[in-house]
UniProtKB/TrEMBL annotation:
NCBIfam families named in the record: yfcE (TIGR00040)
Cofactor(s) the record lists: a divalent metal cation
Record has Disulfide bond as a keyword: no
Protein's name according to its UniProt entry: Phosphoesterase
Top EC class for this record: hydrolase
MF (Gene Ontology): hydrolase activity; metal ion binding
Length: 171
């Protein structure tokens, strides 16, 4: 099973559209995961139409229309992998221990908010993934997103993708 993992798209505030590369990955993915801060409803609608399956949550910048359609925390079983999605996990310092207390029923926790790519494992063995942002890099050197594979009941390959400059202006 192929996953596309994105967050913090902030459309149309930080960019007009998602990069073409992200749309292509969405078309190849079995599941698209968005960890919040969509900002506009049009992005949710477009990803739902373009994806085989979409799992998303709302973020702190998402208004009432998005909050009405998305949960604060999403939990799904994907090929035997218990996955949770949330927008914010707090400061980087102490994140692993905090997430173990916050989410005790997941193998993988996908989060956003910081716009900083993250890949670590908690003391309890939960994998923490943040894809960064494909449209708003803030102080990061690149716009980013993640792809991952699930096979044989486990999370396999996770790859951070760096988008070329100006890619966030396409489509």
């Amino acid at each position: 099973m192929r996953l596309l993992i994105i967050a913090d798209t902030h459309l149309p505030v930080r960019a007009r559209r998602l990069p073409e590369e992200v749309w292509q990955e969405a078309g190849r993915a079995d599941v698209v995961i968005h960890a919040g801060d969509w900002v506009d409803l049009a992005t949710l609608d477009a990803l739902q139409e373009h994806s085989r399956r979409l799992v998303g949550v709302y973020g702190n910048n998402d208004g009432p229309a998005l909050r009405a359609r998305l949960p604060e925390v999403a939990r799904v079983d994907l090929g035997g992998v218990r996955l949770a999605v949330v927008h914010e996990t707090g400061a980087a310092s102490g994140r692993e221990a905090r997430c173990d207390r916050m989410i005790d029923d997941a193998d993988v926790l996908v989060f956003g908010h910081s716009h900083i790519p993250w890949d670590s494992v908690t003391g309890a063995g939960m994998r923490l993934l943040n894809p960064g942002s494909p449209t708003d890099r803030r102080r990061q050197p690149h716009h980013t997103y993640l792809t991952a594979r699930i096979a044989d009941g486990g999370l396999g390959e996770v790859e951070l993708h760096r988008l070329p400059p100006r890619a966030h202006r396409s489509r």
